[in-house]
Amino acid sequence: MGAVATVREDVAAARRRDPAATDDLSVVLTSPGLHAIWTYRVANRLWERGARLPARIIAQGARSVTGVEIHPGATIGRRFFIDHGMGVVIGETSEVGDDVMLYHGVTLGGRSMERTKRHPTVEDGVTIGAGARVIGPVVIGQGAQIGANAVVVRDVPDGATAVGVPAKVRTGAAHPEHQVDPAIWI
Questions:
Q1: Most buried residue, 11, 72, 125, 134, by CB count within 10 Å?
Q2: How many other β-carbons are positioned within 10 Å of the β-carbon of residue 107?
Q3: Which of 59, 63, 61 is nearest to 45 (CA)?
Q4: Contact yes or no for 141/131 (Cβ under 8 A)
Q5: Are 36 and 58 in contact (CB under 8 A)?
Q6: How do residues 1-50 score in pLDDT, each as one tens digit?
């Protein structure tokens, strides 16, 4: 997929997920989450080609401007959207699938000093609420939702909602529409 097509896809994803996004131009010019992901993609290409220092410098520049820190070694899928952005941290061995949405203050962090898989895997279609912390090599299953300020240290199955500190998993809402907002379980 080319760069222009990717940008269009990202803008369309932002418009779908952000009710405050009124038009494409304002999204392109004012969305720190989009600016962070676009800069990450440049840094990630450099990282994968072995240009680690330039990749880290670009990532730090993006962090300074957007308030979003994405390690250039992380793996991030298509149509990824960060709403508001400020304070988001995505660690080096994080893997993020397609159609994932993060709100401000989310951390995908590690809990090991070993050079192994130490950050979360977030599968397709996941939403992670503001201030949530997902720590360690846990797997957040497809379509799962993480409530605001939850601290997740264990796997979350597909389609489940995790809330609280430490996060508890809730499954089986009466109707899929009830799973739209993770705050319903708080």
A1: 134
A2: 22
A3: 59
A4: no
A5: no
A6: 788 889 899 898 888 888 888 888 888 998 899 999 999 999 999 999 99
Average pLDDT, the chain: 90
Q: How far is CA 38 from CA 7, 118, 161, 171, in A?
A: 8, 24, 29, 34
What stretches of the chain show up as alpha helix (H) in DSSP? 3-17, 24-30, 32-48, 52-66
Catalytic residue among 84, 104, 119, 178: 84
What is the spatial distance between Cα 58 and Cα 35, in angstroms, rounded to a whole number? 12
By CB neighbour count within 10 A (0-12 exposed, 13-18 middle, 19+ buried), where does 44 fall? buried
Q: What percent of the chain has pLDDT over 70?
A: 92
Strand 101-103 with 151-152, pairing = unpaired
Assess whether 119 carries a catalytic annotation. Answer: no
Q: Count the helix, strand and coil residues of the chain and give each as a percent rounded to the nearest 5.
A: 35, 20, 45
Distances (CA, A) of 143 to 3, 4, 8, 22, 42: 27, 28, 23, 26, 28
Other beta carbons less than 10 A from residue 2's beta carbon: 7
pLDDT exceeds 50 at position 186: no
Instruction: Tell me the residue type at 94.
Output: S
Q: Is the Cβ–Cβ distance between 55 and 72 less than 8 Å? A: yes
